[in-house]
Amino acid sequence: MASENVSTYKLPIGPVHVGLKEPITAWLDIDGEKIVNATIRPGAIHRGIEFMARDRNPIQVISLSERICGICSFSHVTCFVRAVENVADIPVPSRAQYIRALVLELERLHSHILWAGVACYSIGYDSAFHLGMLLREKVMDVLEAFTGNRVNYGMGTVGGVRWDVTSEVDKTVREMVSFYRNEFDAFYDVVTEDPIAKARMRGVGVLTREEAIRYCALGPTARASGIRCDLRWSAPYEAYGDMDIKPIVPQDYYGKAYGDVFDRFLVRVLEVYQSLDIIENVMDGLPEGPLMWEPKLPKLLAHLKKADGMGWGAIEAPRGDDTHVVRLTGGQENVTWWKVRAPTYANAVSWPLMFRNNELADAPLIINSVDPCISCMERMLITDRSSDAKQVVSKAELLEKCREKTRRLMQS
């Protein structure tokens, strides 16, 4: 479209793009090489995991929750089982809480190092990308030695965990911490001290503190804008209540939070060091005791079948607040309904703000800067197929249908 002073045109980025990890489309309004506006269009990988849960009992749903995301699979498992434990009034043994915190921090290491490497790839810094991928292998080896898998660990269950920390695992984890303390500085320095890499990220994709609050940004994206938010600090769960955890914000290290891509990089790599400290504290303070509230599955399922009500679980996943809400109906074996709000669902709202007044070449970097997991945020839509007639529903009507369905489920 054109006007007297400016001529713009729309350019799609995605859903398939060499700079994107997962499919999503960003329609960019371009004035020359400058982005003046943006519209985000998800919807390429809708899945029906939440709906599938209605045909399964809570123990069977654990494997579904683990497959919402391959990078933060245990985060979703922990959030789901905490929601079930909430409604069924199931206490978790102290040792199991510590082991959950251990795996969550191992997963955070995995996620943050992977993201940092991909960020380097997005700016063409291939040597730093390969260094990041090489460093990431260490924590992946530890997860495999601990659980038997590099992803989808099969670790969590309602009321505890399935695997214990043996002497061999203890030794492997401590060797990993020592490795990263010796080797990760090189990756941190090679990116943060490189003037070209810094120039490529500084001032790009800015999300101010006020915008982050207004648009409900979460996790490292919000912390990079200077907001002190971290559920491990504000609402501690599992073993985090026994530890002194503070949100990492740029102003504490560099005097000011710019809220740009560089600050999002800084927050994540600094959280790598924080996770190493937490892992050491977990290993040193690991209490003795059982791993599960009820190890016999038939007795656990019988208890869950009696549970009636709605349970809620929220944790600080690598990308931000992950929230699961579960409804169980007394006397019924299967889950009545299950709702997942992954952090990308909230952070994606801020993308159009980050795009404004940036160069077209920065678009993939800005999208990747919130570490998006499109598989986590996608939703499904069920339509009435009883009639062959084509039906067109307006946005207002669709919103009202969603609100009516929510009210109906809350009352069921």
Class, according to the CATH hierarchy?
Mainly Alpha
Oligomer: single chain
- The share of residues in helices is 40-55%
Q: Looking at CATH, which topology would you report?
A: Cytochrome-c3 Hydrogenase, chain B
Q: What does this 3D model show about the protein?
A:
The chain has 412 residues and is mostly helical. The chain has a single domain, classed as Cytochrome-c3 Hydrogenase, chain B (Orthogonal Bundle), CATH 1.10.645. 50% of the residues lie in helices and 11% in strands. The chain is built from 18 helices and eight strands. It has helices spanning 49-52, 58-66, 73-88, 94-122, 126-147, 167-192, 195-201, 209-214, 219-224, 231-234, 251-254, 261-285, 297-306, 343-347, 351-355, 363-368, 374-377, 395-411; strands at residues 9-13, 25-31, 34-41, 156-157, 160-161, 309-317, 320-328, 337-341. A three-stranded antiparallel sheet has the order 1-2-3. The protein has a three-stranded antiparallel sheet with strand order 6-7-8. Strands 4-5 form a two-stranded antiparallel sheet.
Features:
8 strands; Cytochrome-c3 Hydrogenase, chain B; 412 residues; mainly alpha; 18 helices
Give the SSE layout.
Blueprint: E1 9-13, E2 25-31, E3 34-41, H1 49-52, H2 58-66, H3 73-88, H4 94-122, H5 126-147, E4 156-157, E5 160-161, H6 167-192, H7 195-201, H8 209-214, H9 219-224, H10 231-234, H11 251-254, H12 261-285, H13 297-306, E6 309-317, E7 320-328, E8 337-341, H14 343-347, H15 351-355, H16 363-368, H17 374-377, H18 395-411
Antiparallel strand pairs: 1-2, 2-3, 4-5, 6-7, 7-8
